[in-house]
Amino acid sequence: MDKINKGYSPQRRRFLKGTAAVVGGSALLTALPGSWAFAAGKPETTSAKLGFIALTDAAPLFVADEKGFFAKHGMTDVEVLKQSSWGTTRDNLVLGSQRNGIDGAHILTPMPYLMAAGAITPNNQPVPMSILARLNLNGQCISVGRDYADLEVQLDTHEFGQALAEKRAGGDEVRAAETFPGGTHDMWIRYWMAAGGIDPNRDVSTITIPPAQMVANMRVGSMDAFCVCEPWNHQLVNQASAIPPIPPASFGTTTRKKPSPCAVTTWRPTPMQPARC
């Protein structure tokens, strides 16, 4: 179990190479002696309310629920509850189940660290957190709007930056979406843009969109690019609005298919694995 202290400050490179989602908890874990310790062969609690966001890396939670794994190990009253956004997940963790919130959650890195430091909590009040499991080492993508399909945007964003500059010069706002300010998707899309000379603080408006709303917002042109975990990038493909992720060399894995009529280029920023095209 990864206990988080207020003074913990991971380096940026560790964030970029690290995971995207974890299982974290607040009220339940801090209220119980020894957190999830067992006493006399039994768990110290049989109930828990666990939140998740509609993403592929949440599968361990709802699969465990459907397969009866919680009950098998003595936790007979576990609820797995869908959350509408990472912000809602944070708010419900702060509340805890005794105040109609949740006890633990599938949650975006580095939110548990930020909560423990009081950086994203009401009145900057630190909330003790414990990380129980890492859920995701892959599956993140950056998607680029279909207006830029001809650029075949990958790692090099210089041409993409020029196209964004032309759009701004024409009086239109340029937007890039992430799922939570300061989260891994926020850092990845900023890092990706900055590497090509796009200033993420000046050249674009960075907006926060819940993962499940990314596809709908991209389809109506609410943003020019976004970063989110699967399955939402491939939902663009399934809805004939994109081609499969096209990663830069040595940054991910992909397959290629014939582009759809309104193609969107997506990039999978996963430095843990070399590209295979």
- The chain-level mean pLDDT equals 76
What is the fourth-level CATH superfamily of the largest domain? Periplasmic binding protein-like II
End-to-end separation in angstroms reads 37 Å
Tell me the overall shape: elongated
Major sheet description: 6 strands, mixed
Low-confidence stretches: 1-19, 26-36, 242-277
CATH fold description of the largest domain: D-Maltodextrin-Binding Protein, domain 2
Question: What's the level 1 CATH class of the largest domain?
Answer: Alpha Beta
CATH architecture of the largest domain: 3-Layer(aba) Sandwich
Report strand %. 15-25%
Overall structural class, as computed from helix and strand content, comes to: alpha/beta
Question: What is the CA-based Rg, rounded?
Answer: 20 Å
**Number of helical segments?**
10
Task: Tell me the helix content.
Answer: 25-40%
Folded structure, characterized:
This protein has a 6-stranded mixed β-sheet with strand order 1-8-2-7-5-6, sandwiched between helices. It has 277 residues and is α/β, with parallel strands linked by helices. The radius of gyration is 20 Å and the shape is elongated. Residues 1-19, 26-36 and 242-277 have low confidence and may be disordered. It is built from 10 helices and 13 strands. The chain has 2 domains: 2-134, Periplasmic binding protein-like II (D-Maltodextrin-Binding Protein, domain 2); 140-267, D-Maltodextrin-Binding Protein, domain 2 (3-Layer(aba) Sandwich).
